[in-house]
């Protein structure tokens, strides 16, 4: 006999698990299916898990700030015990360097003011009081080392940064996903691992379930695509990509793990930092390491991946480029000959703003295009998707009358047309991992 569920969620990463958690709390009988062996073992496993609240749009910032409130009280959000323990927010704040590249953060500061997020303007002397290893030399625009101008300082040094306390990072993102899985299971949600979805079933003009690689048929009137960097594969499988103005692609990214300067305790004194002047972000990592990724400066070629099951998981020369850029800001940081780190894929939307939406196929929904920056927003994404799915299944016409989601902790109404697959490219976006 075929198995039947109220909703099937393809993917058990941080996004799929959060949706399963929220729908199961509403009484839905859900099944998360993942082709890997456990939850959070897809791209979420390699996230830098920076929990920042600043974005280049008001709605992006509001969603991140609301989500921060859940990370801050993670035990309350999860609501049950997990035998593996609970993930912990390292609440060390976030620093963003003011530079020519980001117009001294004027736009970001206006948005923070509008949402009511407290931050401090720091001079560079104050930046150095917080983190003495940082150097104020400006190198903008970011360059590659083969550029003869790489490392040529600009005449004017950096002016300073903003720092806000309500931010930090999660050092064990896989555990955080396990927490959400356990929370969902406590409400009856089910999970199926080592199971690959191979086709989306339809009955008439509506979705009716999925078929697995081994031929198993699982029936459901609702199927949700939360497959991370495989999102375009699943959308094509469902035949919904043609009906989307904004599409998604997989982009390869490298993150380098570097040692802190000798004798400096970066692990307990550092905080996630973003620096458009050298095109880098970084944060503390266990073992007194500094973990650094690229902010996608124009000079870096983008490595789009046709098949998300086949890409080079080894670090390349790019990791060294990122290390050299960070060494411009932290000149005392040693660069090992053999750099360690991780490689994974972003699921990038055309304008680097995610798609949380229905599709043209009734019953088929998507939470995709997370563009390297939506781990932090998972608690809100789960709640938004649950409301969207519930209302659409009751007949609401979300495309013509977009649902407004109330961010209850910060008192902000978020019109979900911001995340529509039918939107025009959002020109307010940073068109980068900054969102
Ligand atoms: C290097 C890197 C650094 C990042 N840093 C940050 C950061 O600092 N802060 C931040 O907020 N965000 C960050 N992100 C982004 C964030 O990690 C992602 O947005 C988020 O983890 C995506 O979660 P997901 O559940 O959509 O995807 P995934 O975790 O990839 O989960 C999707 C799941 O779907 C499964 N799947 C796919 N196809 C099928 C199929 N056919 N059948 C069954 N299962 C299938 C996969 O196995 C996978 O487990 C980063 C991402 C990367 C790669």
Write structural notes for this entry.
The chain is α+β, with helices and mostly antiparallel strands. It has two domains: 3-85 and 172-247 and 351-419, 3-Layer(bba) Sandwich (FAD/NAD(P)-binding domain), CATH 3.50.50.60; 96-166 and 251-342, D-Amino Acid Oxidase, Chain A, domain 2, CATH 3.30.9. The protein has helices at 14-25, 58-72, 74-78, 106-115, 124-130, 173-185, 231-238, 266-269, 317-329, 378-393, and strands at 3-4, 7-10, 30-33, 50-51, 89-90, 94-98, 120-123, 160-164, 168-170, 190-192, 197-203, 206-212, 217-219, 223-225, 248-259, 273-275, 280-285, 289-294, 304-305, 340-349, 355-358, 364-368, 404-407, 412-415. Strand 12 (206-212) and strand 13 (217-219) form a beta hairpin. Helix 2 (58-72) crosses helix 10. The mean pLDDT is 97. Flavin-adenine dinucleotide is lined by residues 10-16, 33-36, 41-44, 46-50, 196-197, 226-230, 253, 255, 293, 344-346, 370, 372-376.
User: Which cofactors or ions or other ligands sit in this model?
Assistant: flavin-adenine dinucleotide
Number of helical elements: 10
- Superfamily at the CATH H level of the largest domain? FAD/NAD(P)-binding domain
| Share of helix, binned | 10-25%
- Count of extended strands: 24
Strand content is 25-35%
| Structural class estimated from helices and strands | alpha+beta
Rg value: 21 Å
Q: Span from first to last CA?
A: 45 Å
> What is the third-level CATH name, the topology of the largest domain?
FAD/NAD(P)-binding domain
User: Kindly state the mean pLDDT as a whole number?
Assistant: 97
The main β sheet shows up as: 9 strands, mixed
Number of domains: 2
Silhouette: globular
């Amino acid at each position: 006999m075929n198995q039947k569920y109220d909703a099937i969620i393809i993917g058990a990463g941080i996004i799929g698990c959060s949706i399963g958690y929220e729908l199961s709390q509403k009484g839905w009988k859900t099944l998360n299916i993942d082709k890997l062996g456990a939850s959070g073992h897809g791209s979420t496993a390699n996230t830098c898990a920076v929990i920042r609240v600043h974005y280049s749009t008001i709605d992006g910032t509001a969603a991140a700030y609301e989500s921060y409130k859940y990370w801050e009280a993670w035990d309350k959000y999860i609501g049950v015990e997990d035998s593996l323990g609970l993930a912990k927010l390292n609440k060390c704040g976030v620093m963003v360097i003011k530079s020519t590249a980001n117009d001294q953060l004027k736009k970001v500061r206006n948005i923070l003011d509008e949402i009511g997020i407290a931050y401090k303007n720091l001079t560079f002397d104050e930046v150095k009081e917080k983190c003495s290893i940082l150097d104020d030399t400006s190198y903008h625009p970011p360059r590659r080392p083969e550029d003869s101008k790489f490392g040529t300082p600009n005449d004017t040094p950096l002016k300073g940064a903003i720092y806000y306390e309500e931010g930090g990072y999660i050092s064990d993102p896989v555990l955080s996903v396990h927490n959400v899985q356990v929370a969902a299971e406590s409400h009856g949600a089910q999970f199926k691992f080592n199971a690959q979805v191979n086709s989306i079933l339809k009955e008439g003009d509506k979705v009716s379930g999925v078929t697995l690689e081994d031929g198993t048929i699982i029936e459901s009137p609702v199927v949700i695509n939360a497959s991370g960097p495989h999102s375009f594969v699943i959308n094509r499988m469902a035949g919904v990509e043609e009906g989307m103005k904004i599409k998604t692609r997989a982009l390869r990214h490298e993150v380098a793990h570097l040692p802190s300067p000798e004798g400096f305790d970066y692990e307990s004194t550092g905080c996630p930092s973003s620096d458009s002047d050298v095109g880098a972000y970084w944060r503390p990592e266990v073992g007194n390491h500094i973990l650094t990724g690229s902010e996608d400066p124009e000079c870096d070629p983008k490595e789009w991946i046709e098949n998300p099951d086949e890409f080079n998981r080894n670090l390349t020369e790019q990791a060294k480029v990122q290390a050299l850029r960070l060494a411009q800001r932290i000149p005392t940081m040693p660069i090992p000959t053999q750099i360690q780190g991780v490689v994974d894929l972003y699921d990038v939307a055309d304008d680097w703003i995610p798609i949380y939406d229905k599709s043209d196929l009734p019953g088929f929904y998507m939470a995709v295009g997370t563009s390297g920056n939506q781990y932090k927003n998972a608690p809100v994404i789960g709640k938004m998707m649950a409301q969207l799915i519930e209302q659409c299944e009751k007949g609401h016409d979300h495309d013509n009358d977009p649902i407004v989601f109330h961010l209850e902790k910060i008192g902000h109404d978020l019109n979900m047309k911001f995340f529509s697959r039918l939107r025009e490219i959002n020109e307010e976006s940073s068109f980068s991992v900054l969102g």
